[in-house]
Design goal:
With 59 residues, this protein is an all-alpha fold. The protein has 4 helices and no strands.
Length: 59
């Protein structure tokens, strides 16, 4: 089994999820709750969503 560091999971995978899904993943474990509740994650998630919406509107 391949080990994926938590920061890669958090900042490369979970950042792409819908807000409701993120709330559900907070229940996985304490580390995920803290990571998903951090201001760094929230800021990056908002930026990702804004960029995604801009790309969609251009099409």
């Amino acid at each position: 089994m391949v080990y994926i560091p938590f920061d890669i999971i958090l900042f490369e995978i979970l950042i792409r999820l819908h807000g409701r899904s993120i709330d559900q993943y907070k229940c996985v474990c304490r580390q995920w709750n803290e990571g998903l509740s951090s201001w760094q994650f929230m800021s990056l998630h908002v930026n990702y969503v804004e960029e995604y919406l801009v790309r969609i509107r251009r099409k």
